[in-house]
């Protein structure tokens, strides 16, 4: 028996007011607990709209979106949905509410009406997970770009959600900031967190459990990173991650056993040999 | 070119000084007392005492005197205008006259007093903002205004609105600076020509600034909503406000100082010195 779905989208359609086209056109998608799903696709394909639908910030025009069994159409369930699913946006500066790091992280728990001792516990935990404990009393705007994005992540984690939605959250980071952010995500994944990551970077997509391609408002491909980089990625002109290119080259020259791309861990293991 | 360098009006400077640690309600009340006290000062020696009080602020706040004084820079123009208006339009015994412009003894005195009062007022209000983080400030204001919620005043919403407005101050400065530089790199000229031409040259800065700010405000509103913020809903606090003995002592100390200044002002001795 599989794990309970965190997200279950059935025939979701959505159009922004005044738009002449649908941003989402009949998306069916299910994400199970503990999965790390990479949503990839061109700009304007509907990925961010999908993330907002999953956080009940937008309500489908047609179809339904269930978050841990709760339909986002039911207004009374929206607070629970947002408590269970946290969204981290692309630009960290658009998410900072308070001028001091720990107060910004506390914003979510304060909205839940929790006692100050519980807020403090959550803030400590979230800052620890995001690696910002030493910056807790610093000014939010004095942090580096990478730290600001980790602050946004800490703010999301302080709600102690079951799932994280990341909307191109690494796109504004430098290589060092991106690595530290991804290392945070790796730890969260190990702790059982469900992660849905929207990304343009294929080297991030390859770390996920599953890749879903969104194209013109539809989920057009769904499978493992191994299968995706075995050929499907070419259909939408995605770049091949350098590690995969190297593996393929070595396979072609007969320096590695097997004929097709294995899963990521096996690939990494083989390359390390 | 740095158009906006050094503007610190209203910006919080994190620290752990005595003033930083005081309950924000105490600091808000103190600022009102200070402003009231300032407008009760009518003689130059009173203003000297206020100047001495100002000199104590670096020790109390851990913020350098230079930074404190710099906070008044954006409104020096306003201080100068106020002083000039009082200088030329106060009736009395003329000490200098050129055409319709007449400088009187009383005008000189009033110009100095009004200019200094306004300067102190801005510095003291800036001290409140420099030592109180916006979240604590809005919490304090919300608590002070909470009795009004009984008659339907939205004190909670106002507090969040205030937090956001203050949080946007550095963003506004940064974005303005960025747009100014972008326009300069495309050949914009903000410095030559008359007042009207210079004012007009800022239109290409203001339009993108407004668009950008509205866009960022909308993004922030979505982010707040996704973090479970619901307008009007009761919120708790990470650091609930606590009014202790040091707040009471600070208010009493300040009241004693203001009373002393007012009493000295009324005394024959200071009155004599002022003349």
Write a structural description.
Chain A has 10 helices and 10 strands. Chain A has 2 domains: 5-96 and 160-239, Rossmann fold (3-Layer(aba) Sandwich), CATH 3.40.50.300; 241-273, no CATH class. With 273 residues, chain A is an alpha/beta fold. The longest helix of chain B is centred in the middle third of the chain and has 31 residues, at 155-185. Chain B has a two-stranded antiparallel sheet with strand order 1-2. In chain B, helix 5 packs antiparallel against helix 6 and helix 8 (155-185) crosses helix 10. Chain B has 2 domains: 1-132 and 250-275, no CATH class; 154-243, no CATH class. Chain B is 69% helix and 3% strand. Chain B has helices at 18-21, 24-40, 44-61, 65-70, 76-89, 105-131, 134-145, 155-185, 195-201, 203-226, 245-266, 268-274; strands at 94-98, 101-104. Chain A binds chain B through residues 52, 55, 57, 79, 82-83, 86-87, 89, 91, 93-100, 102-103, 106-116, 119-120, 123, 137-139, 141, 155-156, 159, and chain B through 12, 14, 133-135, 163-164, 166-167, 170-171, 216, 219-220, 222-230, 233-240.
């Amino acid at each position: 028996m599989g794990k309970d779905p965190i997200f279950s989208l059935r025939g979701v359609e959505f159009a922004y007011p005044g738009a002449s086209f649908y941003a989402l056109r009949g998306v069916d998608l299910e994400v199970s607990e503990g999965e790390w799903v990479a949503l990839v696709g061109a700009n304007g394909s509907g990925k961010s709209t999908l993330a907002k639908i999953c956080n009940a910030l937008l309500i489908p025009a047609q179809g339904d979106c269930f978050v841990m069994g709760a339909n986002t159409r039911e207004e009374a369930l929206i607070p629970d949905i947002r408590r269970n699913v946290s969204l981290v946006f692309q630009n960290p500066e658009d998410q900072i509410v308070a001028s001091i790091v720990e107060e910004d992280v506390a914003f979510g728990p304060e909205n839940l009406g929790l006692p100050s001792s519980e807020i403090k516990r959550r803030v400590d935990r979230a800052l620890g997970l995001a690696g910002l404990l030493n910056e807790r009393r610093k000014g939010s705007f004095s942090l580096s770009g990478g730290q600001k994005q980790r602050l946004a992540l800490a703010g999301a984690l302080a709600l102690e959600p079951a799932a994280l939605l990341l909307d191109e959250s690494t796109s504004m980071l430098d290589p060092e900031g991106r690595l530290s952010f991804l290392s945070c995500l790796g730890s969260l994944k190990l702790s059982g967190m469900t992660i849905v990551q929207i990304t343009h970077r294929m080297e991030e997509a390859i770390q996920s459990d599953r890749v879903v391609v969104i194209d013109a408002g539809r989920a057009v491909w769904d499978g493992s990173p191994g299968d995706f980089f075995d050929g499907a990625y070419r259909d939408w002109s995605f770049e091949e991650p350098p590690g995969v290119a190297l593996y393929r080259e070595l396979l072609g020259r007969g320096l590695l056993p097997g004929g097709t791309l294995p899963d990521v861990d096996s690939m990494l293991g083989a390359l390390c040999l | 070119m740095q158009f906006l360098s050094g503007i610190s009006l209203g910006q919080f400077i994190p620290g752990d000084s005595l003033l930083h640690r005081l309950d924000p309600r105490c600091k808000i009340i103190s600022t009102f007392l200070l402003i009231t006290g300032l407008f009760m000062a009518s003689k130059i020696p009173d203003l000297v005492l206020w100047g001495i009080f100002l000199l104590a602020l670096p020790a109390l706040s851990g913020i350098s005197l230079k930074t404190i004084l710099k906070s008044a820079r954006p409104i020096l123009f306003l201080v100068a205008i106020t002083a000039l208006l009082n200088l030329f339009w106060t009736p009395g015994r003329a000490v200098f006259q050129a055409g319709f412009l007449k400088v009187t003894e009383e005008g000189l005195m009033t110009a100095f007093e009004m200019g200094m009062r306004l300067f102190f007022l801005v510095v003291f209000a800036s001290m409140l903002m420099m030592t109180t983080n916006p979240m604590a400030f809005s919490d304090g204001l919300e608590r002070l205004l909470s009795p009004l919620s009984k008659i339907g005043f939205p004190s909670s919403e106002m507090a969040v609105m205030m937090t956001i407005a203050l949080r946007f101050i550095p963003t506004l400065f940064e974005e303005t600076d960025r747009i100014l530089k972008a326009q300069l790199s495309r050949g914009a000229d903000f410095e030559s020509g008359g007042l009207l031409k210079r004012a007009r040259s800022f239109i290409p800065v203001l339009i993108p600034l407004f668009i950008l700010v509205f866009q960022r405000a909308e993004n922030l509103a979505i982010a707040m909503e996704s973090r479970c913020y619901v307008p009007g809903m009761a919120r708790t606090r990470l650091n609930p406000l606590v009014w202790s003995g040091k707040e009471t002592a600070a208010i009493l100390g300040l009241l004693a100082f203001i009373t002393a200044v007012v009493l000295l002002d009324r005394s024959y001795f200071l009155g004599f010195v002022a003349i």
